[in-house]
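Why run this: before we spend reagent on co-expression, it is cheaper to look at a predicted model of the complex and decide which construct boundaries make sense. The entries below are exactly what would go into the expression plan.
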Amino acid sequence: AQSVSQHNHHVILSEAASLELGCNYSYGGTVNLFWYVQYPGQHLQLLLKYFSGDPLVKGIKGFEAEFIKSKFSFNLRKPSVQWSDTAEYFCAVNPDYNDMRFGAGTRLTVKP
Amino acid sequence: GAGVSQSPSNKVTEKGKDVELRCDPISGHTALYWYRQSLGQGLEFLIYFQGNSAPDKSGLPSDRFSAERTGGSVSTLTIQRTQQEDSAVYLCASSYSGFQETQYFGPGTRLLVL
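The model came back. Tokens follow.
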């Protein structure tokens, strides 16, 4: 079945460590890609999105993601995490005009 | 308010009862989405409205689920004859025009079927 896979269920880092969260999808053709974040007690909100053009996209709060078409991947990165980045992160793919698929999410805990 | 609102915030019901969940999108947003998030799972896409129309209802889990949107604004998701497996958080989102636009999520309705 076509899917969106997030490799890590729970990641624990210390402040200032670098972050990379994996996301792979299995849809062919042109897709739109997103990372959403849910901070504790808050609603889901968009971090960044990719439709076309430069495969390295920058989002809010210093996050970036790289689209690698050959690997069907859209990994999220941040050079130096902060305690306030503690949240759940969801990768999402819009594979066609009437569908949106989310990964299961990765919980990030940043220790101060 | 400026954001997406959903009601009720929590709903406890008995198996076999019908429930109705409501979503108020951001004013001016023509696209509206319903998702379901079960414990430990990602978001499951249920249905998308463009205006009052849903192009494809195949994402709804069963024929006990229905959704409608009126006046290009408020949407209701109805679950008939609820089952315990329907217990989940139901999230609504809206965007300006479609999937390529940023989706703004509501707080969700937490449904528990006893």
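Chain B has a mean pLDDT of 94. The first strand of chain B starts at residue 5 and ends at 7. Bring this page to Monday's planning discussion.
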